[in-house]
Predict the 3D structure of the following.
Amino acid sequence: ASYDAAILTKKEGIVYTPAHHTTDSICSDTFAEELLPIYKSIAESYSCAVIRSAKDMSLKLRDYAADGGRLLRYGINGTSAYAVYYITDEKLTVPEIMGPSADILPLLHTLAAMAGNRKLTVKMPSGPIPEGFDASIRPWGAMTALNAPALMKEICGNSHIAAEISDPIISQNSGIFAFDGSPVSTAHI
């Protein structure tokens, strides 16, 4: 599965001003409970978004922390939007930014100001491009089955129902398979 992602970059000639009401910290799973409602409210409106439980959110934040991720939170009366980012000498990369669009813009301006002369790259779901930023839209992989027949057998076991699968990436996944993983000639789905 895939979805269209917007890859945002800074526009030439714009001076970005950091927003008030932001808090910068190391990424930590201690923020999972605070950030999960923001993530869920945004992610559920997009195709192919992975819906996270509290445990999933905690694990994801630990993954980001293990790689040196930082967390930028925005909100006037509590956190209303957040961004996970990585910063090096050459670039500032944002793999996850969540919140209502009105609250994303102050985060984006703060991140762009923090980037300074570094390259800024922000991955977010496609939609209206925030003013003051350039974007390219491209497909982004969410997940794929490496062996569709084996997955069907593992999940469904023996079944008399068959499905036709078309996978332009992994040709072995294309064909008509019973839900026990065996190839057949007639599809029901």
In short: The longest strand covers residues 2-10. The chain has a mean pLDDT of 87. The chain is about 25% helix and 30% strand. The beta strands are 2-10, 22-26, 70-74, 81-87, 91-98, 119-125, 133-141, 162-165, 175-178.
